[in-house]
Amino acid sequence: MTDTPRTRADDRTEAIRRTTLELAQEIGYAKLSIEGVAARAGVGKHTIYRRWPSKGALFLDAVLSPQQPDLDYPDTGDVMADLRTQIHHAVDLLGRPPFGPLFQSLIGEAQHNPAVAAELNERFAKPQEAKTVARLTKAREQGQLAPEFDLDLAMSILTGPLFFTLMVTQEPVTHEYVDRVLEALFAGMRPRP
Amino acid sequence: MTDTPRTRADDRTEAIRRTTLELAQEIGYAKLSIEGVAARAGVGKHTIYRRWPSKGALFLDAVLSPQQPDLDYPDTGDVMADLRTQIHHAVDLLGRPPFGPLFQSLIGEAQHNPAVAAELNERFAKPQEAKTVARLTKAREQGQLAPEFDLDLAMSILTGPLFFTLMVTQEPVTHEYVDRVLEALFAGMRPRP
Amino acid sequence: MTDTPRTRADDRTEAIRRTTLELAQEIGYAKLSIEGVAARAGVGKHTIYRRWPSKGALFLDAVLSPQQPDLDYPDTGDVMADLRTQIHHAVDLLGRPPFGPLFQSLIGEAQHNPAVAAELNERFAKPQEAKTVARLTKAREQGQLAPEFDLDLAMSILTGPLFFTLMVTQEPVTHEYVDRVLEALFAGMRPRP
Amino acid sequence: MTDTPRTRADDRTEAIRRTTLELAQEIGYAKLSIEGVAARAGVGKHTIYRRWPSKGALFLDAVLSPQQPDLDYPDTGDVMADLRTQIHHAVDLLGRPPFGPLFQSLIGEAQHNPAVAAELNERFAKPQEAKTVARLTKAREQGQLAPEFDLDLAMSILTGPLFFTLMVTQEPVTHEYVDRVLEALFAGMRPRP
DNA sequence: TATTAAACGAGACGGTACGTCGCGTCTTGGT
DNA sequence: ACCAAGACGCGACGTACCGTCTCGTTTAATA
Lengths: 193, 193, 193, 193
Fold this sequence. Notes:
Four copies of one chain form a homotetramer. Chain A has 193 residues and is an all-alpha fold. Helix content of chain A is 67%, strand content 0%. The first copy, chain A, has two domains: 8-64, Arc Repressor Mutant, subunit A (Orthogonal Bundle); 79-187, Tetracycline Repressor, domain 2 (Orthogonal Bundle), CATH 1.10.357. In chain A, helix 4 (55-64) runs antiparallel to helix 6 and helix 4 (55-64) runs parallel beside helix 7 (114-141). Chains in contact: A-B, C-D. Chain C binds a DNA duplex (31 and 31 nucleotides) through residues 8-9, 12, 33-36, 38, 42-47, 49-50, 55.
């Protein structure tokens, strides 16, 4: 019966994260400031700097802490269908408010700040990759995937197109679009004999 | 016999762009400031603000102006080989100093600044897509591509994995890695009958 | 039959002076700018700089040109009454809008700008002093003034108190107040035997 | 046993005042800038703006703080002699470097800035007037002054001429000139019977 | 009358300073 | 002893004018 003792420090940490998210959603990451978060949270700036080294780190923690965003894989036995379902979820979460813009800013920040990039990788990309690889491994064992398919490339190939659209062309991504991408990836570009 | 009249204004614009690139390479985009560019270029701040609305816009223009980065497609008749060559070039340009870090920052900035995102699209993504689609169209006509292959997806599928690696996982991208991705894309994930 | 030929240059000069006065009355001397005058007058900045070396000089000219402010002395034969009348006029002109604030700013500017001070002296103070001395000389000859009264001091003594009130204490100056000052100056501080 | 605790804030305030005076004496009030004071004092601009609302207010405080300029009245029993002495002191202080130019600029600034005018009055003109009136009251009681002499006018009449000369004609003021003015004020302009 | 030089409007330009904002560090005072 | 509150040095922001400097375009006086 171990209850989590919820220290005062924990409460404050949580409050700061919550305020950060609120503010970021209201005014955007670019206009977010530690000064503003401290004021809104009723907290001294020192209390923030004691916990996070930079605005980027605070933001990343605020965005990734609340929930490990639910991007787990279903397993219905049909890998193509499961991938489809999962990527639809991903698109819904990452491509739409309220989470979408936060996530977009987070990746933007990672381009300027290596520490943020590293932590983003550790806390988001790698776990996600692990899940993907696990699901694909199973699929391959069941013969639903080409046996020579290179699992190291899984994330790049499956998620890369999605990110490209979200971040470079910045067009809205629909389920239908995702389906077309998935279909193309499965079929391959090479003409069938 | 059209001579380019090279007005004084043009010269200054060029000088500012050049200085911006220099400074960005020395200290990085994050520490770049309009004040700093103005000082180094021996130019009043207003002269910069008269031309570009923000640091991001200036930086984008400085990065994209010098040369339309040479990412044209060769055409040897073998589309797979040509794609390989072109993507190798892209990786060499976008993934390595001096251009790589600049480009990375540029995409990062686009996540915070819609105007930069739009111009990045207009001046970089769309022209590149047009070239890619043109090359693939030809290949499809010659039967080197599955006839049902969806060309609208071309950029996402071909370039997406590359961007994902450069920007999310931020691992170095080798020619060998690109080759494996390309091979997978061509073959498809589906097991061969 | 000399008509004044009113060249275009003269017209422009006049237009700039007029605009300067207008603007000064609207926004105050402190916020007045040559840039603003040029824009309002529909005139290039050069055209102003060609005529006046500084904002102060322009302002002085604009304030003092329109009319030699009518501060002439009446001569009814009674010097005390005439001084009274004249100083009432002076107070009405210098102590009240629209001219009062302009004049106040002008003297303020003269404290920072020697050229303005010199011209203010030449065009305002000295002529005024000449008139005063002339009137007092006549009065002394007619025995209405102590024969040993030192005319060099006339301006300081007669006008000084007025300026002090207008510029240092900046209280409103009434005719009644002026009368009391004049009476005191005439009577002297020394007790009568 | 009250010791003055000399907080850090007090020290900084004093340092800024001192620097302001220094700079003003070196380059003049017109070229003085808050930026310059901050740089010289090794202080952030905000630290100045937190204390004074404008360059004028800072300057006034810097000029008037160091010492209540010693313009007290002696009391030898002879009011005429005492006034003479005091006004000589005033002329020496206000009409000569280093204090003279500062004071002149201060009054100039008061013409543009009502807040400065008000504080100048409060901290300089009114206290000075109080002293003058006190001394004259005593003199009147002792019969050295015309019993009907209007003490409300004292400052205007005694100091006005001095200010007029210092600020409008801007001629140097000598002790001898002051003496002549004083003599005239005592005697009055009216011819003796 | 046609030519030409000057004056002109417009406004770009290198500067300086403005007053504001937020950074990350350091003090202070209250609980 | 910790913490909110916020002062502090600093650096950059974006703006406003300064006084100088091209630009074409009138305008008027000369050839």
